[in-house]
Structure formats: C-alpha cells, structure tokens
Amino acid sequence: MSELTDLAYAQKLDAEDPLAHFREQFVINDPDLIYLDGNSLGRLPKKSGRLAQDLIERQWGERLISGWNEGWIELQAQIGGKIGQLIGADADEVIVADSTSINLFKLALAAVNYNDGRSKIVTDDLNFPSDLYILHGVARLARRPLQVQIVPSDGIHGPVEALTQAIDEDTALVALSHTVFKSSYTYDMTAVTQLAQDAGALMLWDMSHSVGSIPANLHAANAPLAVGCTYKYLNGGPGSPAFLYVQRKWQAKLGNPITGWMGHENMFEFALDYQRDAGLRHFLTGTPPILSIALIEPGMNLLLDAGMDALRAKSVRQTSYLIDLWREWLAPLGFRLNSPVETAVRGSHVSLGHDDGWRISQALINEMRVIPDFRKPDNIRLGIAAIYTRYTDIHEAMSRLRRVMDEKLYERYSLVENVVT
Amino acid sequence: MSELTDLAYAQKLDAEDPLAHFREQFVINDPDLIYLDGNSLGRLPKKSGRLAQDLIERQWGERLISGWNEGWIELQAQIGGKIGQLIGADADEVIVADSTSINLFKLALAAVNYNDGRSKIVTDDLNFPSDLYILHGVARLARRPLQVQIVPSDGIHGPVEALTQAIDEDTALVALSHTVFKSSYTYDMTAVTQLAQDAGALMLWDMSHSVGSIPANLHAANAPLAVGCTYKYLNGGPGSPAFLYVQRKWQAKLGNPITGWMGHENMFEFALDYQRDAGLRHFLTGTPPILSIALIEPGMNLLLDAGMDALRAKSVRQTSYLIDLWREWLAPLGFRLNSPVETAVRGSHVSLGHDDGWRISQALINEMRVIPDFRKPDNIRLGIAAIYTRYTDIHEAMSRLRRVMDEKLYERYSLVENVVT
To answer: Beta strand B379-383 with B373-375: parallel, antiparallel or unpaired?
Structure first.
C-alpha cells in the first residue's frame, strides 16, 4: 500500500472517487494549471458557455423584449428555488437578487426595524468585512441608538462561548458568516440559531462560503434569515448576483427597506402607490441583470446532480488530505494551519499561514501555476471545489508549494502586496 | 416630390440619413419585424455577441480569478466614464452599479441626510413608479418626518409651474425623471435644477429614458445628482446594471448609506473598519455582475461614434415624422397624441392613446409583427432608437397600425391585460 505522500495514493483516491466524472462538465483547457480558488470564483461549466450563446444571440438578439415573458421574469425565483434545495429551504423562501452586501442590508435593516426595542447587533471579527460595514450602516439608519458588538475570536475559531454571553435580551440581530472567509471555520447553524432565538433575537446567516460546499439545512435550524453568493462554489460566473432567504413565517412580518417596482404585488400596473408582494418577492427592488443571473443555473444543476452529501464527503476527505500533506511536508517549513483541524467545523477551504505568505502565494501563481488566494495577514487560502478538484491536484499543488520553499522562489517577489488575489 | 405619407418619402429620408450605416452594427435577423421598443430593451450590437464569447470562454473560463486584475475591477468606472461623455459629466463623476432603483435609494437617502433640516421631497406624478416607491422608502428611513410631495400633472406635460410653487425652503430633495416614461415629456434640466438650487434643495435626475437619446449636459445644468439605466437606448442587454452620477463637489459631502466593501478606500485590505473611498467609488457596495456590466460597452461605443447631437437630430426628425403620420392616418381613427407636440420637450418615444390601446398593441405584436409596448391606461408607446431605426420602419409600422384598425384585428384580443409588454 502506498504512503499518504505518494502520488499513487492520490491517484487511487481519484480512481475511487464517485464524483470524478463531474470534472468533465467544466471547461479546463490548461491541464498544467491547478486552480484552488473556486472558493473565490468557480470554474466555467461547459453548459454555461452554450447557455450564454443562446441568451445573447437568440433570447436577446431575436426575442428582444419578449424575453421577459419567455422566462426572464421568473429567473430570480426559479434559480432561488434551486438554491433552496442546496440549503434546506423551500422554493418560495429563496430568491436571487442584487449583491450579497445589498441583500444583507435589506434583511438586517428589516430585522432591526422589527426588533425595534433592542439596542444591539451581535457579530464576530471573523465575519466578512463587507458584512461588518453593512451592519454599521444599518445601525446608523435605525431610528434609535444601535450598537454593533463585534465579538473577538482567536482568529480561527468562532467565539461560541463569547457569543453566548453577548447574545442577550438587548440583541435585535445576530449576523454571522456560516463559514468564515479566512479560516473556513463553520458554525453549528442549529445551535447558534437557537442561541439567538432563545434571546428573542433574529439570526441572519451569510452563507457565501458554505453554499454549495456544506449541506446546510435552514429549516432544520429554524433559521429565519440568510444571504449568500453564487460566484464561488455555485460556479455562477464573475460577480453573479446573490440570493436571499426569508423563512416563510417571517416573510409577512419583515419589510424590505428598499421598496422598488420588482417588489410590487403587480409591478406592471405601474401604480403610483407601492403595494408589496405578499410573498418573498417584496424583497426585490430593481431590474435584475438577466445574463449574469441566468448563468448561475448550469453550475448549480451540477451540484444538485452530484448531491450535497456526496460533495461534502469528498470535500472533507480532500481538505483532510491536504492537511495531512501540510503536516508531512509544510509544517516543518514554517507553515501554520490557520483552519480548524476538526472536520465538523471546517468548510471547504484550508488556510495555511506563513510569515512570507504573500510572496509565497505570488511565487505559487507565477512560477508554479497554482492559483490560491491570499488574505492578510498571512493566509494562503487553498479552496477545494469538490465538484471539479482532484486528489492529484492537491498532491501536485502541495508538491509545487514545497518546491517554492525548497528553491526559495518567493524571494524574488515584493514584500508589498500589489494586486488582487 | 412625394407626399409625406408615401413610402417614397420615407425611403428618401433613409437615403439621406447620415447615421443609416449604424444599423448594420446590430443583429437584425428578421427583416419583417419592426422593433419600436428600444426604449425598453435596446437591440443586440454585433460586437456584444463577440465580446460575450470572449468574456465567457477566455476571461472567465481560462483567466479565472485573474480576470479581476485584468480589467473587471475597472469596468464600473471605465464604462461610467464613457456614459459621462453622453450626459455632460467627467469620467470620475459617473460609475456603473446595481439597478437604477438601488442607485436612486443611495443618492436620495444621502441627499435627505445631508439636507437634514428640511421636511419634503418633491417629485411629480409622471415619475417612474419605482422612483416614487423608493422615495417613500427613503422618507421612512429619514430620522425626521419627511413628506413626499407628488405634484400632479396633466398626464403628459411636466407640471413646471406647480413644481415652482412646491419647491421651497422646506424641500430637501427634488427628484424627477428627465424624460418621463409614459409621455416622453422632457424637462429643461438647467431650469429645473436652478429652481431646486435657488431653494437650497438637491436635484436628482433619473435619466433612464433620456440617456443615449438626448444630449444632456449635467455640468452645464450644474446638476448635483443623477441615475439612469443602460438597457434602453444604451443597448446594454436585459437588465444590465445602472449608473449613478455625483457632481465632483458633492462627492465628499454625501455619504452612501449602503456601505459595502467595494466602496472601501482599500477593499483588499479586508479591514474590520470601513474607510470610504475619497471619490465616487464610495457609492459602490457589493461585487458587480461582470458579464452584464461588460456588455454595456459595445452599444455605448456606437452612440459615442454617432455623436449625441446627430442622434438627437435624427430622433427629433423621426418622432416628428411619426407624429405627422399619426395626424394624417390615425387621429381620424380615434388615436390621441399622448406625447408633447413641441420637439424641445419631447424625448425619443411617442405615446399614442386609444380606448382600445391594450388590444391594439396585442394585435400589432401578434398579427402585424410590430413591437411597441403598452402603458396604462391607454398608451401605445412607440420607441425610436435613432441608431438603428429607419424612417421606412416608422412608415411601415404606422401602415400596419392602420391595418389593425381597418380590419379590426384587435377585436379578437382580450380586454384584460395578461402579459408584460
């Protein structure tokens, strides 16, 4: 039997992988490039290329305005409904709209306006910065003094104990990333939602880094609110619009603060008065960017075909394998594991910390053709998209990372960060 | 010399049209279809089809995350700058983002928060309904009682006199459509901006129906704020994102209420604290939908090549020609002109009113292959996109409309509206 560090070991895992054939559904023209950034921008599904051609040439070019009656107006709900299948929500509880930040603004402001006797929003310092900026903006707009309490963590693990203390009868809203963007720590959605609920606070999950990688169940967690992104593990394309989820029982109680025509109960009446849609659609605002929305569907269909449980099983095995290789090869070279060791609280990316992390990531990209990304201060993020990542990709990427260190290839790179990764 | 109603007259105008060759830059596969809805969704430029293929297959499929460093992150400002050339603004005063309604929300709330000693937003009943819904939402979020005063009109013409009365020292914001969506009445931007300025109110123009059809000059008007849409006369594609304009001197004074990472002075720091960008970018919020944004550019380039003055001259001549044919052929059949007669205050679409307007528009579409749209109660809107509409298209469309009436083809259609037009 081969050693864990042998290429043969990875090859055997690939050969046994029941999801291996899904890789063929993606455009991968460059066999030498190892892409471990699907947690930032997912790969192009082959069907998306064909759909784009139909969208542009036939739907827009030939059907013109008729496109709205021939499917466009339904796309946000249709794709939202499919996202619901990935996150344990019903079809009429999820809709595609705007960006994650805009959706977070809508739901967070709706929540604090509902819970209007309370003076606090609770979050943590692992949350995505844009979420924190949005929450501060929401606090400024509330018609009462409202504090954003950012519970500190150890930088890797969700500060569950401290959150338990912080969430109290003054808490209007608890807003957290389900899987956090740096360490990939993943909260127990059910337990934390329960904490919020017990205190009478509304819980709002940002699922940007978990949707499509972790089989969350919003219903089982009795979670009222969530938002998330579609361009990471859902493979929707660059900047593809986000989604929002509102549990059915909350849809009538909460109001969208950005009241636009797409949220009107009968938008084509063009009435002067706003009458909100009775269901989730009242959280819509303006005209949706059809091309960027329609292209979410092919990648998501692949996830639905593969099944979230199978994807999660593979993802756990792959991130564990990556961590095993880190332990064997990279820990001795000064790399720290900046992600949880415990699989139950780890998402689908692994962050390796190194004092020269920025330069190492640049050398990886430019010399070794391995694409991770970098997040300050020291995190080289390695994203595993189980739908198209092979075990041999992980083996090869970690081998190349070793070579960067052995040959000190990073030393030629600037200490100063100068590009987006 | 031919009569105005002769086909030969239209053919002569086409032959003399210096912009006629721009039509070849658009995909027009169906010579029998007459598309007069470019004011709702512009046609597909040929270059957009080619650009889409590059965006999908090369930029997303092959360049993957590197796309952000290779142009995507600049697209919003780059295309915004070009829109600036169409509306008399500098490149650093216009940026593409979100939807028109979201942008209106941001700028209107910023304006009333700035003018925080005043108790009124003034608009009119010709404004696009979504704009009114947004303004009401903004009023609810203000930290003081704020009234939305909707000045009534005659249904066609901007109520300039009544607005002059309404705009006073209690007015925080005046928000109007530059060209209104039903009648195409077009305000004198300079005069009305001056009214607002004299009262100490901020002026916010919605240019959705004027951008790309009227050579507005925001600088000459000393206008502080504007928003607008890119999927109508700019030919950006279905639901392509909108733009916002903030005059340079107002950029530091006003704050975006939806503070997201794209508005941070250094978003890739991922800092916990929000530090807004010093310029216009602080009005950005979340990740932009790249495919839908990038495809705005080819259509806009065609407008820049043609020149707004030449486009406006042709548009005026074409809408006047359409009105001449209405007078000859359709006024006797019960059609009313629901647009201004005076060219100076008319945009690039013409609304014809008829008691059977809904059924007539359905017959036009289904029997006659002419695509207008319909806006309650009685408006058949005929949009002229001078960049690709021919005089013979107008002649033929009006001839077919006559046939609908002569042969009573509309009688087979339901009195009840049942689809989006």
So the answer is: antiparallel
CATH number at residue A158: 3.40.640.10
For residues A397-404, give the mean pLDDT. Answer: 98
Mean pLDDT of B63-84: 97
Out of A304, A333, A356, a domain closes at A304
Token readout for B198 is 């004299």
Say yes or no for a CB contact (<8 Å) between B69 and A420: yes
A52, A57, A289 member nearest B289 (Cβ)? A289
Total domains, chain B = 2
Contacts of A27 in chain B (CB under 8 A): 57, 61-62
Of A61, A136, A242, the CB nearest to B274: A136
Has residue A52 been placed in a domain? no
Mean pLDDT of B5-12: 98
What proportions of chain A, in percent to the nearest 5, are helix, strand and coil? 45, 15, 40
Q: Is residue A357 part of a domain?
A: yes
Residue with tokens 């993802």: A315
Answer yes or no: is pLDDT of A421 > 60: no
Q: Do A285 and A182 belong to one domain?
A: yes
Residues B271 and B323 in one domain: no
In the set A206, A373, A378, A393, the catalytic residue is: A206
- Among A274, A304, A334, where does a domain finish? A304
ipTM tops the 0.95 cut: yes
CA distance A66 to chain B (A): 8
Q: Which residues of A touch B52 (CB under 8 A)?
A: 52-53, 56, 291
In a domain, A263, yes or no: yes
Label residue A420 by pLDDT band (50, 70, 90). low
Domain that holds residue B283: 71-304
Cα A328 vs. chain centroid, distance in angstroms?
A: 30
Residues of B annotated as catalytic are 128, 206, 231-232, 381
Q: CB atoms < 10 A from the CB of A78, how many? A: 16
Q: Which domain CATH number covers A362?
A: 3.90.1150.10
Q: Which residue of chain A has the CA closest to B101? A: A286
Q: What is the DSSP string of B309-360?
A: HHHHHHHHHHHHHHHHHIIIIIGGGT-EE-S-SSGGGB-SEEEEE-TTHHHH
Nearest CA in chain B to A285: B101
Distance CA B325, CA B394 (A): 9
